[in-house]
Amino acid sequence: MDLERRNEELEELYLLERCFPEAEKLKHETKLLSQWKHYIQCDGSPDPSVAQEMNTFISLWKEKTNETFEEVIEKSKVVLNLIEKLKFILLETPPCDLQDKNIIQYQESILQLQDLLHLKFGVATEILLRQASTLADLDSGNMEKVIKDENVTLYVWANLKKNPRHRSVRFSETQIGFEIPRILATSDIAIRLLHTHYDHVSALHPVSTPSKEHTSAVTELVKDDVKNVEKAISKEVEEESKQQERGSHLIQEEEIKVEEEQGDIEVKMSSAEEESEAIKCEREMKVLSETVSAAQLLLVENSSEKPDFFEDNVVDLCQFTTLGGVYHLDILELPPQCKPVKGWMIVEILKEGLQKYTYPPETTEEFETENAFPPIEVTLEVHENVIFFEDPVVVRWDAEGKHWRTDGISNVSYKPKERLVTFSLDTFGPVTLIQDAHINMPYQSWELRPLDVNKVLLTVTTVFTEIQIQIKENLCMLSSIKLKDKKHISILEGTWMTPIPFIIALKEAGLNIFPTRHSHFYVIINNKVPLVEVKAYRQMALLSSAFAFGWSKWNLLCNSTKVVFKVREHLTEECTENPNWALLMFSGDRAQRLKIKEESEAFSEALKEETEFHSTLYHMVKDFSSEEAMEKVRSSNCQFVNSVCHMLLSTRLLSYS
């Protein structure tokens, strides 16, 4: 392959790949528009990216007192929305644009909102428990209250009768409850189960930023380009001003040539301005293109260091993931009750607020029986929108060490049909359910095929499930999930979202097909060179509107500097019935069509007869494709191509299959 043709191919690819910086530009414009809309709405909610507005919001809410549980739930919707927005800012902003001070500011705002929200739920629980005697059940004489909302469910039981025989607590119309020991059945206590459908207990995930070499290389490149832009512009401005000075001097000396000279100057100025604007625009796109490429490369880079060594019974959150939110289990001292006096309700308010009841007590010498403080049996319901492919593991929060632990929990049993998990707990505190984050990795196969104009279907098949994702413009949607060949209905189906919120939603539902930079430590993978992967995904995305791509078993047998996959032209649904796949091998700077087929007995890198090497996948498929298909590729929507590329980079199909 001669150098001249190679340069021509790369130049054409460069022009096609301009869709990536263009999509980033559109994303930035959309962000600015949403900020402007928020500003003109004046609805009282703060801009999460502005520290002053966030501090004012937090301070004003702190000052508000005596809010009922229902009022706190209503306010929590605003708070959770702000937390979500802050997390999206950290995830969606290109790493090069994120300054350390901004990361710290956003993370501090998230933590402050999380802590304040939990504090408010505590105060609201105290206000509710002061009225326990007035809300007592007529049959049992004890208070029982359930408050349900989309983000939070509260279960509260207050022991008013202190009946030693009443040791089984079950909340009406549910199987959720506790088996309590005699000592608790005869004490002034309340038991609270606050199920938050989100996890504000686990530590915040660190924000991915480029490595030092990566950052310095990209930063220098960007700085040089910016300087060049500035130099080019200032040079143009100087030229213009010199021309203006010369023009005015000539006009003063030779008044006869005024009209001619002015005409010339105007033409020169306008052409210089146009040229200056074109240079500036081209440089900006180049800088943006480099920034986008750096961010894409960051998505497929593997960490060289395994997460810190964890002692026995401590959960490694790089290997496992919490699912279904957090169950805050608390035994509380019953606060003084409201008393009616001459038409007034009088209540004693304790200065120290709601107090936790220590179980088991720190000293047990005064108690005669050896087993006076047995573990408490708890039955919880698994969140309906979460999928567990294996029995969930119950873990408890260690407030001192700031991590989840598996010890202190015994007799765990799970009923998958009823979605009930029962276990015995030594001491109360936050508990959650975990699943192996890589349970669906490596994938068994995958396919990406066009559905319509600027619309594709990505199918990923794993040991347990088949997940189908539709992608169009800048949106993604869960199309279907199959579990053991049966269709599973998910709340996410039919909901279109932008890529990052969509990926988070799938992970939170237990459908994790998105490796992290640490995943290679926990999964045996077919690791490919990051740059080769990125180039392959970018070019596959460019071609995805007219070509189908699929998994090939030969990708495992070629080395880490090359990738192998199936490809075919796909313009109509008829193509699906008789697929005529071609096998392509790509090394990032050279593409070839292989002589072997998927059914062949042995792997060979031999070139297919009557085909030749190319520098890009685009020019490789062009050799055996129709003009209609190539025209469809050239007219693809930039946001659509960018979304397909982001999904390919996030699933890393070529390394994790």
From TrEMBL:
Residues 2-165 form the IC97/Casc1 N-terminal domain. It holds the Pfam family Casc1_N. Residues 402-569 form the CASC1 C-terminal domain. Belongs to the DNAI7 family. This is Dynein axonemal intermediate chain 7. It comes from Pan troglodytes. The gene is DNAI7.
